[in-house]
Design a protein that fits this description.
Number of helices: 6
Largest sheet: 5 strands, parallel
CATH architecture: 3-Layer(aba) Sandwich
Number of strands: 5
CATH superfamily: 5'-nuclease
Strand content: 5-15%
Radius of gyration: 17 Å
Helix content: 25-40%
Number of domains: 1
Structural class: alpha/beta
């Protein structure tokens, strides 16, 4: 009798690295008749972000209620820390990004084989990484 490995039964889902702009848009999304971009992404796959993005979201909160909403949002995502090994590859993006933060974000995407999701068209166009604009999910 043939045994089937449990690994072979696992369905693969898309994996995304979510930029801060998409997270912020979700927190300010008010049209309850329409899913936010982040909700669409979460229905389609697994969403990651980095400790930098999480910090940017928390930093921008203006009161306890906003901070609690931000924490709830971040609890629904997989927040990746920054391993020191990422610094060894950050120069791969020195010419194609505007700053070290964006270069580190790209390094995280590359090493973890994640698709970048941002609403800022063209931001990562010269990186060679797969970049998705959330509006493409609505087509």
């Amino acid at each position: 009798m043939n045994q089937i490995s449990r690994k072979n039964l696992t369905l693969s889902k898309e994996e995304y690295l979510i930029e801060t702009d998409v997270l912020a848009n979700h927190l300010t999304h008010t049209d309850r008749s329409l899913n936010s971009d982040l909700e669409l992404l979460m229905q389609n796959g697994v969403c990651f972000t980095t400790v930098f993005n999480a910090s940017e979201i928390i930093y921008r909160t203006e009161n306890a209620e906003e901070k609690n909403e931000a924490i709830k949002l971040l609890s629904a995502l997989k927040v990746l820390g920054l391993n020191s090994r990422y610094s060894l590859n950050v120069d791969d993006f020195a010419e194609s990004t505007e700053n070290i933060r964006d270069a580190l974000f790209c390094t995280v995407a590359k090493i973890n084989k994640l698709k970048i999701v941002t609403t800022i068209k063209g931001k990562y166009k010269n990186t060679g990484l797969e970049v998705i604009h959330p509006e493409s999910l609505r087509k």
